[in-house]
């Protein structure tokens, strides 16, 4: 590849989550979510209630500053903005019959601003923010009742916003429930006490709910497109030993099962064998099987890193990150230990396209780093060339995948404005093109400043990728 050029229809933008940007956790009739009791991040234990050290309670105050932030996104030339609706803003407890009008009206205003600038919304219905009441009273998705509560919530959103929002995602990184059952599935039972039977029953309930609301969206407005959303993490054998190759296959199956069901409408044979071998007997009704046949229109995913896999227990002792695995000795790492592998994005795009032949949407990809605010020509900014290099190299691999014939709908970088990190609940783990003046201790003015990468991304969008720096090592 001597240059990168993306299709005119390619959607460019950024991605966020309500619990990481909105703040205003107790305003507008909002109820508590599971995020309000996890001040140290989704990987850590919950606490009894909201505490002053939880940065997510105020976050970056998007709830009051959304117009300013969307104007900045428009300045960069965004054609799409991914955000989530906080379930507990619409149904504060999660199991009510009547939605909260104040919550619905807030997202009307957000959509008004996006329409003002011609930015298409991409909306996630559930992004790690199950209403806390559903976790405490029902044990989250372990309980079948959540299917009905979620469908009521989703239908409310489709009926209110469906004429304005054409692309929806059902659950954020749904396969993460394997590793963070409380943060991802609202499962209140401690992970150490949660049986595999209950975990996979909860997964089944989520898959049925996702399919059921996909059908509901298509019934309400056939032009609506609904996608699943998963963590994509390509796995490489640590050695050529066939045992390591089989270990990769098994680990891939654990993650790919979620999308296989979403796309194919039934459990694959390897999942049925896994359940038999583990003695897991799921409660699957005839209606469940019918619901699952309502498949998604596209597959979306986050991509941050790849990992190696091994059958050697000693190698696994040095496991990687949230999805397990083994660190790749050939790759460098971010400041938070996430391995940087741009070519892995091309690998996973080809893998997903070959497997499902469904349009793909990269809805998260970015670099968390410790930025330093400096003054340049009288303006405060961040010289974040490391972020520019990271994104440049990943986007070049997207261009390679397009050349390979992969159908890619768009790219929403995570997160275009500094926000509270999901994994660590820090502000110092910054991703954005826009710096937000807030520190890990909660201090700061919340003033926004454009980073160097702000102008760089604007150039990439304006040139449809033509400004990307193509390197000799970029082509595979």
Automatic annotation (TrEMBL):
GO terms for molecular function: beta-glucosidase activity. The active site is at residue 364. InterPro entries: GH (IPR017853), GH_1_N_CS (IPR033132), Glyco_hydro_1 (IPR001360), Glyco_hydro_1_AS (IPR018120). Transmembrane segments: none annotated. Gene3D superfamilies: Glycosidases. Keywords: Glycosidase, Hydrolase. It holds the Pfam family Glyco_hydro_1. PROSITE patterns: GLYCOSYL_HYDROL_F1_1, GLYCOSYL_HYDROL_F1_2. It comes from the Bacteria. SUPFAM superfamilies: (Trans)glycosidases. GO terms for biological process: carbohydrate catabolic process. Belongs to the glycosyl hydrolase 1 family. PANTHER family: 6-PHOSPHO-BETA-GLUCOSIDASE ASCB-RELATED, GLYCOSYL HYDROLASE. This is 6-phospho-beta-glucosidase. It comes from Demequina mangrovi.
């Amino acid at each position: 590849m001597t240059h990168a050029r993306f299709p005119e229809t390619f959607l460019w933008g950024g991605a966020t989550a309500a619990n990481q940007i909105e703040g205003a956790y107790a305003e507008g009739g909002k109820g508590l979510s599971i995020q309000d009791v996890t001040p140290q991040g989704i990987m850590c234990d919950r606490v009894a209630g909201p505490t002053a050290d939880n940065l997510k309670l105020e976050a970056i105050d998007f709830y009051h500053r959304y117009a300013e932030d969307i104007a900045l996104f428009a300045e960069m030339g965004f054609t799409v903005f991914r955000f989530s609706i906080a379930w507990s803003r619409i149904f504060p407890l999660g199991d009510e019959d009547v939605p909260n009008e104040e919550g619905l009206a807030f997202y009307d205003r957000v959509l008004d601003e996006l329409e003002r600038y011609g930015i298409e919304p991409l909306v996630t219905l559930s992004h790690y923010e199950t209403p806390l009441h559903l976790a405490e009273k029902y044990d989250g998705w372990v309980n079948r009742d959540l299917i009905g509560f979620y469908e009521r919530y989703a239908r409310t959103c489709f009926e209110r916003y469906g004429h304005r929002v054409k692309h929806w995602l059902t659950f954020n990184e749904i396969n993460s429930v394997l590793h963070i059952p409380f943060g991802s599935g609202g499962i209140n039972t401690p992970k150490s006490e949660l049986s595999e039977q209950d975990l996979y029953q909860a997964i089944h309930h989520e898959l049925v709910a996702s399919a059921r609301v996909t059908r509901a969206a298509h019934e309400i407005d056939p032009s609506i497109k609904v996608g699943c959303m998963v963590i994509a993490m390509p796995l490489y054998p640590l050695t050529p030993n066939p045992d390591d190759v089989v270990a990769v296959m098994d680990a891939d199956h654990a993650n790919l099962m979620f999308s296989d069901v979403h796309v194919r409408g039934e459990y694959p044979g390897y999942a049925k064998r896994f359940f038999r071998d583990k003695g897991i007997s799921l409660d699957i009704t005839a209606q469940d099987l019918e619901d699952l046949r309502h498949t998604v229109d596209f597959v979306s995913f986050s991509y941050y890193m790849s990992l190696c896999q091994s059958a050697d227990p000693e190698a696994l002792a040095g496991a990687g990150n949230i999805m397990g695995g083994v660190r790749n000795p050939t790759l460098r790492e971010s400041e938070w230990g996430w391995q940087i592998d741009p070519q892995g994005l091309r690998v996973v795009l080809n893998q997903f396209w070959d497997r499902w032949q469904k349009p793909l949407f990269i809805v998260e990809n970015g670099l968390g780093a410790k930025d330093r605010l400096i003054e340049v020509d009288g303006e405060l900014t961040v010289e974040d060339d490391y972020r520019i290099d990271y994104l440049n190299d990943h986007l070049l691999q997207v261009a390679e995948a397009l050349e390979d014939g992969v159908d890619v709908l768009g790219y929403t970088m995570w997160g275009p404005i500094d926000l509270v990190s999901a994994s660590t609940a820090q502000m110092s783990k910054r991703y954005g093109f826009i710096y937000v003046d807030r520190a890990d201790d909660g201090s700061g003015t919340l003033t926004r400043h454009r980073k160097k990468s702000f102008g760089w991304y604007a150039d990439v969008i304006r040139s449809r990728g033509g400004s990307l720096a193509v390197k000799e090592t970029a082509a595979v």
